[in-house]
Amino acid sequence: MKLSTLITLSVVALLAASLASAGHAIADTATADPPTAASTSEIPLDPAFSTGQLENGLTWYVRTNNEPEQRAFLNLVVQVGSLQEDEDQLGLAHFLEHMAFNGTENFAKQELIDYLETIGMEFGPDINAYTSYDETVYMLALPTDDTQYLETGMQILADWSRRISLDEEEVVRERGVVLDEWRSRLGAGQRIYEQESELLYAGSRYVDRLPIGKPEIIESAGPAAIRRFYEDWYRPELMAVVAVGDFDEERVLELIHEHFDEDWGPEQSREKVTTDLQPHAETLWGLITDPEGTSSVAQVILKERHEPTQTLAEYREAIARNLVGRLYGARMSELSNANEAVFTSASLSAGSALIPGWITPMMTVRAPDDELEAGFEQAMTEWRRVSLHGFAATELERTKASWLRSLEVWWNDRDNQHSSRLARRMTGVIMDRATFPGPEWTLQTSRELFPTITIEDLQAVVESLDFERESDRVVITNTPELVQAEAPTREQLTAAMATASAAQPDPWVDEVRDEPLIADLPTPGSVVNESYDEDLDLTIWTLSNGVQVLVKPTDFKEDSFTLTGFSTGGRSLGSEERNASQDIATSIVSAGGAGDFSAIELRKMLADKAAFGWLWIRTYQEGMSARGSADDLDTALQMLWLDVMQPRRDEAAVQSTIRDMATRFENQSLNPDWVYSDSLNVILHDHHPRASRTQSDEIRAIDLDTSMEFYRDRFADLSDLVVVVVGAVELDTLRPLVEQYLATLPVTGREESWRDTGMRMIDGPLHRVIATGVDDKARTSLVMHGTAEWNRLNRYGLSVLARALEIRLREILREDMSGTYGVSVAGSSSAWPESTWQLNISFGCEPARLDELVDETLKVLQGARAEGLPAEYLEKVREQDLRSNEENTRNNSYWVSVLAFRARYGIDQREELNTREFVQDFSEQDFRDAAERCIQTGRMIRIDKVPAQTP
User: 25 pLDDT band (50/70/90 cuts)?
Assistant: First the structure.
């Protein structure tokens, strides 16, 4: 099992990365004086959290937070992982994590998942866990509209802490699942990571303690070895409970004491196994190639000891380090965009955490396969320019302003932080990987510290980063095996660094323009008609040029808006054959900037803005999107207007974009997952010319004139444009902006619609096998499709059927048969060009078991069509939808999506008002009708992926 995290604000990225090198000291800030730059006071914990420790050593962190309403997020953080494994336990920390879901003292096999699903939670998004080198974290999301849910959730965490059953039969069953998770990770990425780890973690336990473990140990391990790890390391002093959500804090504290305030663990505790990196006097080199590698990358990595970031002075240093990385990256982006770079991208991280107590400043360079050496030398030469001349004051002030603007947005929205993110942040604090003082302290302190950080401070950071030193340095290149002969050697890379070190480049010239985005504003249009729906709080404006604007003000986020707009036509009105110049015209044209400004100039001019917009062209529509701070909505609308009215031609910038895109696509055919995905789509659509993915040679053949012509044509008449705006907007403020920028978009009076491209799915039955990849793993996609009336009942029926089947197939293929790590069932429908539906079932497994698992899947499908699924599956999905609706209706993106969807297809917007009633009224007969309509195994298309050769 695994968890994916999302970091959205630069400040959070800083807290999770730049300051992640060490521990966190907790201080009481309730009455503390505002911090000053010279202060040595410790960085505080966000005061919104309550924290404490039980007598047995377990710590807790609790915070009441009402976003989302009626939800709680509980984490059990166990501060042990694969580093604590004995030699006969490699992989068993992770195996134990799996076993936590296979029976505890109070929940028999599957009862735990079954219970949580019946109250509307989903396995994966709401119920999950992960194991890393030094932590194992269990996560639950729960509703809180019934106090029993929270009480049961705390019972589950307590069971995981010391009451996992570890039944022998269940261990045997789960072994296959764990092995398939190991198998699913096989590939170039894993092989490269393992080789890099040997260099980065040289001399430490990290090298041979990958959390996924060794398959030979997983295959043979029994309950005894797993139980030994459990009893040795799952101890209260190595645990923490994190609870964030819409609940009574005092009741949660009572539950923590009730369930955790007792002693457990061995009488004589083992000392926690730790590890440290071993310094090395000489550089470690890794010139890595892989038969399935797809890109060429060079990295120079330094290993440095770093004390915990605990004081304001250390915090200030971390900010300076982060600024150096940002400034260097901005320069490299500018060079690349101006087509003056050999590399496709170059970046610098001045202080990323490697393990507690160590950071790894690193230079990363990506380049075309035959230009890696030259690109590396150019990036190092630019670093030499920084070393000699430093950064310009304008660069520094612009970057500070951009960063502070993001902090202001975070502060403005401080009362609407999602509880799941807060719980994850606190997990980072517990594991000494980040500080989290909260938005108020961070903004206040940053406003105070930023003016004190000077060019000289940055230069001190630069001087400390000696990428030419021999000791504690790692140099790594990754190149596809196909181009191994072109990969730079150790001697060539050394020579490139020496050449760069001897260079005498001139100082960087930071060109900045201080002009309005639009020099001559158009004469505003007007709102010619207005209507209002009180129940939806939805205002609809019809503008003088025909554009329709739907506005829904919300208070879900204090300083946020989301916008989308669409017009009919899209790529379908371009060339009948696939044409890359048209297919990616928006990416090509936007590379040139807009109005009188290049893309680089726009980036500099808008550095202190927290909103942005972009245009897009899809198969049947073209349109616009924007999001960001509501305070900067006017800037986003100006950019959209400029992009439509004044696209800018910039041959150099476009050639740079073409080169970079072609480089990314160059070796995609070496990636077996890409080959399978592309082949699947081509076969399903009977080799239609629009079905396959764009190739690198097609990108290189892009013609800017063709792109500009198609782009201008698609946005030449926007009289049918519908724009939806949702967020913290005021109608009186928004209206003049809409009249200025949207009511003045072009109208030519042409009448047009989308064109049928003729692409259709092939009829089954059909079975094809794609042999690709060197790893011993297989995958299949089982696809059924057809036509049906495109209405709400049919669309929802397909969705319910897909998710019910996913639960059932997970129970059979994963839990009962131990055949796969996971099953995905996806249902989709489309109104254009025909009213169609599609049901796709996919899973990976051991090649030898592929037919067996497919046969069992067919039995489940045929049974579901003939007899239906038990009512409990419908009830679970229906409850999940009702729970999701509770959260969705407090989400700007959801409202933009549903309002735009209904507008696009001419559906009454008031239909949304009865969504909950519609879900509740969806009956067992509706469920059976969906199964009968969409389960058509006799017409199934089966596309398998198997190894090209058996290892």
Answer: very low
Check for a shared fold between 51-260 and 766-946: yes
Spell out a b/e string for 379-394, using b for 16 or more CB atoms within 10 Å of the CB, else e.
bbbbbbbbbeebbbee
Q: Which two tokens stand for residue 486?
A: 């072109």
Distance CA 781, CA 941 (A): 8
Alpha carbon 688 to its chain's center:
31
User: What number of other Cβ atoms are within 10 A of residue 951's Cβ?
Assistant: 7
CATH code of the region 51-260: 3.30.830.10
**What's the CA gap between 280 and 303, in Å, rounded?**
10
17 pLDDT above the threshold of 50: no
Mean pLDDT of 62-87: 97
Rounded mean pLDDT, 557-585 = 95
Q: Are 485 and 351 in contact (CB under 8 A)?
A: no
Q: What is the pLDDT of residues 857-898, one digit of tens each?
A: 999 999 999 999 999 999 999 999 999 999 999 999 999 999
Q: At what angle do helices 924-934 and 792-809 cross, to 10 degrees?
A: 80
Q: Which CATH architecture group holds 284-411+435-502?
A: 2-Layer Sandwich (3.30)
Q: Which CATH number fits domain 766-946: 3.40.720.10, 3.30.830.10, 3.40.640.10, 3.30.70.1450?
A: 3.30.830.10
| 298, 303, 335, 710, 766 from 497: Cα distances, Å | 12, 18, 19, 45, 56
For the chain, how long is the longest CA-to-CA vector?
84
- SS3 string of 341-397? CCCCEEEEEEEEEEECCEEEEEEEEEECHHHHHHHHHHHHHHHHHHHHHCCCHHHHH
Give the model confidence (pLDDT) of 783-834 as tens digits.
Answer: 999 999 999 999 999 999 999 999 999 999 999 999 999 999 999 999 999 9
Contact 846, 779 (CB under 8 A): no
